[in-house]
Each structure stands twice: as structure tokens, then as C-alpha cells.
């Protein structure tokens, strides 16, 4: 009986040690000490730093993987991963409301803006003649210190001739559309599919080249039903849960 009781005590102590270590590691991830995509110290290094066994470290890492805070990459190590975002696709989908409800404040980084001939899919979605000119606004969205998604936003160039003059200090696409005179809009179409990232996408999103990303394509229309913008965004599949 004493042996069984002693075994139960040891199991409880081991469980507590794993949970305490997981909490300590999670705090460092959430504080940005290990931002998304950064490799954590090895299990041996963590065991030495915290004065615990590697068995405790493995258990703590498993807990963090279950919570989505880290991911194991075979042959490479353990990497920090941002918090899971619940993204709700509704008739009035707003990126900022979706993401900031779930985590840190967001910001956008303007990568480039170009005017080009829209491809057939883009001109059809925007109800434009084939080959019509569109603005292609390429941005990187951040949540706190973590890159969250890469997006191309396509706008009818002839409808918004001064779009390039409205970009200074914008906090998001809703604000940009408001500056362009679109007081309200709604989502009319959304398509979602999974694929592998390109090398540049993997580097920008800080994910493994053999991981999965979700591509979301949406079309927004004004309250008269006229298309105002289409978006093509790429998200790490491990960081987003889409609700439709």
C-alpha cells in the first residue's frame, strides 16, 4: 500500500512539474522572447536551464503542442507558434474585429502597390471588362510581433483613381474603402482551400516550407451590389480556424 501511495505521489509531482514548466515556457512565447517561427532551445538545454529531467521537458512540450503554442518539425526542433485565431466569415466580415477579438492589436505593413491588367478571375469578380486595369495592393498583416497573413487586395483602378493618395496611415482595408467613399460594404463570396506555401511565403510567415497554408479569396460589394474589392490572403493553417 505504501508503494502504491508513493507511486501516486510521484505521478502527481511529475504532472505538476510538466504543467509548471509548460506555463513557464508559454509565458516566454507569449512575451515575444520566442516569436513565431523561432526555434526553442533543445530539450537538453531546457532541462539544464530549469533543473528538470528531459522526461519533464518532453511532457511540457506535448502540453504546449496541444495548446497550439509550439510545433515540432521532424529533424529540426521545436518552434514557437502564434495563438490560434478564430476567423468568422460573415456578410460583414471585418479583419480587425475578427483578429483583435482573439489576440494582440493588429497592424498592416504595405509591401507594394502596382497597377496591372487584372487576370480573368479578378475582372470577372470585379465585374470589369476582360483585361481591365486593377490596383494590386500587397500587404503583410501582423498580430502583435507575429506575421499573420499575406494578402493581395485588388481594386478597380478606374473607379478609384486616387487610391494611391489614400494609403498613408491606414489601419486596414475597411478604413481605405471609407476614404474612397465606400461607407459600408458586405462580403458576397468566400472561397477557402489548402496548399503548400512558396518559399517566399514560408519565410514571410515564419513557417516550414512543408507546412500547410490556407488561401482565402473573398469579394466585397457595396450596398448597391457593385463589387468594390477582392482579397486573396494566405494564412498559416496552424494559426487560423475559419468559421463559415
Automatic annotation (TrEMBL):
One of its GO terms (molecular function) is DNA binding. Residues 15-83 form the HTH gntR-type domain. Gene3D superfamilies: Chorismate lyase-like, Winged helix-like DNA-binding domain superfamily/Winged helix DNA-binding domain. Transmembrane segments: none annotated. Keywords: DNA-binding, Transcription, Transcription regulation. One of its GO terms (biological process) is negative regulation of DNA-templated transcription. The keyword Methyltransferase does not apply. PROSITE patterns: HTH_GNTR. It holds the Pfam family UTRA. InterPro entries: Bact_HTH_transcr_reg, Chorismate_lyase_/UTRA_dom_sf, Tscrpt_reg_HTH_GntR, UTRA, WH-like_DNA-bd_sf, WH_DNA-bd_sf. The keyword Transmembrane helix does not apply. This is GntR family transcriptional regulator.
Amino acid at each position: 500500500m505504501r508503494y502504491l501511495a508513493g507511486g501516486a505521489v510521484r505521478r502527481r509531482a511529475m504532472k505538476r512539474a510538466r504543467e509548471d514548466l509548460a506555463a513557464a515556457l508559454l509565458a516566454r512565447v507569449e512575451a515575444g522572447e520566442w516569436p513565431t517561427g523561432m526555434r526553442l532551445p533543445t530539450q537538453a538545454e531546457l532541462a539544464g536551464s530549469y533543473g528538470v529531467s528531459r522526461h519533464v521537458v518532453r511532457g511540457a512540450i506535448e502540453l504546449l503542442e496541444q495548446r497550439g503554442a509550439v510545433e515540432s518539425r521532424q529533424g529540426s526542433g521545436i518552434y514557437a507558434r502564434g495563438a490560434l485565431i478564430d476567423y468568422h466569415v460573415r456578410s460583414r466580415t471585418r479583419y480587425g474585429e475578427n483578429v483583435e477579438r482573439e489576440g494582440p492589436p493588429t497592424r498592416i505593413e504595405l509591401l507594394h502597390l502596382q497597377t496591372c491588367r487584372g487576370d480573368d478571375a479578378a475582372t470577372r469578380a470585379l465585374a470589369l471588362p476582360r483585361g481591365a486595369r486593377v490596383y494590386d495592393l500587397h500587404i503583410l498583416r501582423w498580430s502583435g510581433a507575429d506575421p499573420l497573413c499575406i494578402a493581395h487586395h485588388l481594386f478597380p483602378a478606374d473607379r478609384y483613381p486616387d487610391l494611391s493618395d489614400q494609403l498613408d496611415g491606414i489601419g486596414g482595408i475597411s478604413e481605405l474603402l471609407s476614404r474612397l467613399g465606400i461607407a459600408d460594404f458586405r462580403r458576397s463570396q468566400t472561397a477557402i482551400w489548402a496548399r503548400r506555401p512558396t518559399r517566399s511565403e514560408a519565410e514571410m510567415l515564419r513557417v516550414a516550407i512543408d507546412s500547410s497554408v490556407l488561401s482565402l479569396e473573398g469579394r466585397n460589394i457595396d450596398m448597391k451590389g457593385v463589387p468594390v474589392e477582392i482579397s486573396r490572403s494566405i494564412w498559416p493553417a496552424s494559426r487560423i480556424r475559419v468559421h463559415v
